[in-house]
Design goal:
There is one protein chain. With 170 residues, this protein is α+β, with helices and mostly antiparallel strands. It has two domains: 41 residues, no CATH class; 127 residues, no CATH class. Helices cover 17% and strands 54% of the residues. Strands 4, 5, 6, 7 and 8 form a five-stranded antiparallel beta sheet that branches. A three-stranded antiparallel beta sheet has the order 1-2-3. β4 and β5 form a beta hairpin. The protein starts with a helix and ends with a strand.
Length: 170
Amino acid sequence: MAKSMNITYEEAKSINDKETAEVLSKNKFSSFLSIIMPRSITDRVYYARTSAKYKLNSDISAEIGAKFKVLDSAGHKEILRTDLSFTKKGSGASIVNWEELDKAVYPRGGSYPTSFVEVTAVGHFYFEIDNGVDVGFDLGGFSIGGSTSSTTTYTSDAIDLTLDVNASSL
């Protein structure tokens, strides 16, 4: 945070502590806040990710992941926010690309802080190849998405990705 905002570590910690206190107080955690404030707020950033193979062609996979800010006090963890989520190609032939079509983050109960978050996304794989050139791998699960006089674009079916995150497992 300090580096990305071009501020000192102390300034970043102060901003971070203030944001954490605001989230807790907005969500009626004032009694919880009074217990933890004297001991100093302990919050951390955690990353979680998972991958899924494309069911129609197991040679390729996609990944979904996210970054979470988590309050950890006396062994009780709560997710305060999801800072970023991403999808990307996990494995497969180098000519195959991944395109994210949509993604969403759903905190349990509809708001933060929460103990459970579901991150979902949908996307597809695609690649373009010159006409007459051998692809070099199994085309299972791909169909022609478009073509020109010199190239053909192949696309996969849409792929749903889900990452379920429980704060206690972070």
